[in-house]
Specification:
About 35% of the residues lie in helices and about 30% in strands. It is an alpha+beta fold. Strands 1, 2, 3, 4 and 5 form a five-stranded antiparallel sheet that branches. The protein is rod-shaped, with a radius of gyration of 32 Å.
Length: about 150
């Protein structure tokens, strides 16, 4: 038998081509997989950023609600928060007609004379939206001590 270049026999010359094509196919599949993974991870991080923006918008609504207590419990209308976010009081379905903050009533707390002091409890629902992502937060707040028989315990 006669030897060819690189020490292969005549009947083995096509084997190098087949091995090279298989290796090229494997490397192509690895590259496609890397591109697919990168695209997927980019999508995940974008969704996370948008969801975080919506959460912070709903948290801002909670802060607005806390700032107006105890004197008023009016609804917080859809308010632009930051560059791309909105927030309002109420649930996800209340964007068009936000809900008032809820006064859950006056109650006594241990350590305070019931006839003299009490606490008001409020519920604030805040919803935030950013690029279609929606987040809702519900907070219950105890406000006091408040002297009984004042304007704040209604």
């Amino acid at each position: 038998m006669e030897k060819c270049v690189a020490g292969f026999d005549e009947d083995q010359k096509g084997m190098v081509l087949v091995l090279a094509l298989i290796l090229l196919l494997v490397l192509t599949l690895i590259g496609i997989s890397a591109i697919s993974t990168t695209t997927f991870e980019t999508s995940i991080s974008g969704n996370d950023r948008v969801g975080t923006d919506a959460f912070y918008a709903s948290e801002a609504v909670i802060q607005i609600g806390l700032d107006q207590l105890p004197t008023k419990t009016d609804a917080i209308q859809p308010t632009k928060i930051g560059e791309s976010s909105l927030g309002w009081s109420g649930s996800l379905k209340d964007k068009g007609a936000p809900k008032d903050l809820k006064n859950l009533g006056f109650y006594a707390q241990p350590g305070y004379d019931v006839s003299t002091w009490g606490f008001n409890r409020y519920q604030i629902n805040g919803t935030g939206e950013s690029f279609g992502a929606l987040k809702e937060i519900e907070v219950q707040v105890s406000y006091g001590p408040i002297p009984s028989g004042t304007q704040y315990n209604n």
